[in-house]
C-alpha cells in the first residue's frame, strides 16, 4: 500500500488563464516532485467603464473552486495538504478601503492610461538616480507609474491599502497582508540594494505628485519568498465541507516567488550556474541570475531590469513582448471566423523562408490589444519589407522577430553582467513552440534546454516545501532545490544548426531602425 505523501497546492495565475495544481513530494524510492493539474479556468482583461480591468472576483472564484477540488483529491488519496502558494503576473494591484473592501477591479497593465507618465517623472527625477534606486527597466505600466495615473481617482482617494495581485489573493486566503519581495520589486518602489520599500524614491515622487504622499502608508510589510504568511482561514476550510476537525489543522499559505517568473527560475533544471533563461509565455523574460544588481549607466541605457529573486538573488533581465502578439493574432483570426489551429500554422510557418520580414516585437505598437496582423503589415510597409499576406507568413514573422529579440537581449545580458553562458534554459508554455525553441538555438549559437512547461508551478511547490520545513528539503539551497525538481522532469534539447546561408544579423537589426 502506498504511504501518504505531502501535497502542496500551487495557484498559478496568468494573463490568459489560471490553474490550480497539486505537487506531491514523493519520498518512496527516488525523491521527486509529481505535478497534477486539477483545475484550469480562463482569464483575460475586459474593457469596462473606460478601463481595461481584471475581473478579480471571477478569478478568485476560480481559485476557490480549484482549492476545493485539490483538497478533495488530496484527502481521497490519504495525503496531507501541507501548504498553498500563489504566483501571478506582476505590477497590477487592488486598492482596499479602511474596512478592507476592494474598491474596484484592478486595472490591467495594458490599459493605456500610463502613456508618457514616465516622461513626466523624469522631468523631476533624474533617470540615473531613479535607476540607481530601483534598478528597473522603464516600462509604461510599472506600478509606480500606474499609481500616478490613479492619483485623482475616487478609488485612490478612498484607499487605505494597496496589494499586488498575489498578495491580494493571499490576503483573502489568510487575512494577513504582506508584500512578497519578488513581485514587489517589479513595482519600481523597492530599493533594489536593500530589498525594502524605497522611502527616498517615494518622497521624491510625492514632491512631484502631491497625492503620492499617502502611498507609503498603503503598502504592506515586505517579506522574502519562503515566508509562511499565515494559515488558511477556518471559514474557507469549513466551506469545503470536510468536517469540523479539518478546521483545527492550520494549512499554511506560503509567500512563494509570487512573481511567476521568479518561481519559474527556481524550477529551472540547471546543473550549472553558467546559464541564461527565457521564461516564455504571454511575456518573455530573458536574462541571467546574479548575486547583486547591475546599476551601471550602460545597463540603464540598455533598459535592463534588476528584479529580485528567491534566496537573495537578482533576476537581471529584459522584458520581451513574448507570445502576446501571436495570441492576439489568433484572436483576431478566430473573431473573423478562421479556424486553422496554431499548431498547423506553426508547421506551415516552419516551411517558409526565415527572416523574410521582421518587426521590433518590443515596440509599443504591439502593447495594446488589437489587430496585430494589420499592425505588422503597416510596420512592414513603413520599413520597406515584404508584407506578410498569409496567416502562416504572419506567424513566421512573429516567431523570427521573437528569436531576434531573444538574441539581442541575451547578448546584452552577457555583456552587461560579465557572465559566461554555456546553455539557455527555456521554460513556460511557449516551449511547446518547437520552431521558436530551435530558432533560439540557431540565432544564439547556444544549446537550448526546453522544459519544464510548468516551471512556475514546480518552483512554487519547491519553495513551499522548504518553507514549511519538510524534512526532505529543509535547508536546501537553490542548486539543491533545482536538482530535486529536475528529477523526472521532461526536457528537450535543441542544438544550433547551420542554415543554408549565414544569418546577417546586422542587416536584420538595420531593418528595425529604418
From TrEMBL:
Record GO terms (molecular function): ATP binding; glycerol kinase activity; rhamnulokinase activity
UniProtKB keywords: ATP-binding, Disulfide bond, Kinase, Nucleotide-binding, Rhamnose metabolism, Transferase
Ranges that cross the membrane: none
Uppermost EC category: transferase
InterPro entries associated with the record: ATPase_NBD, FGGY_C, FGGY_N, Rhamnulokinase
Gene Ontology biological process terms, A to Z: glycerol metabolic process; rhamnose catabolic process
Kinase among keywords: yes
EC number per UniProt: 2.7.1.-
Residues in Carbohydrate kinase FGGY C-terminal domain copies: 276-467
Residue ranges constituting the Carbohydrate kinase FGGY N-terminal domain according to the UniProt record: 9-267
UniProt-listed Pfam families: FGGY_C (PF02782), FGGY_N (PF00370)
Keyword Nucleotide-binding: yes
GO cellular component assignments: cytosol
Family statement: Belongs to the FGGY kinase family.
Protein name per the record: Rhamnulokinase family protein
Organism of derivation: Jonesiaceae bacterium BS-20
Lineage: Bacteria, Bacillati, Actinomycetota, Actinomycetes, Micrococcales
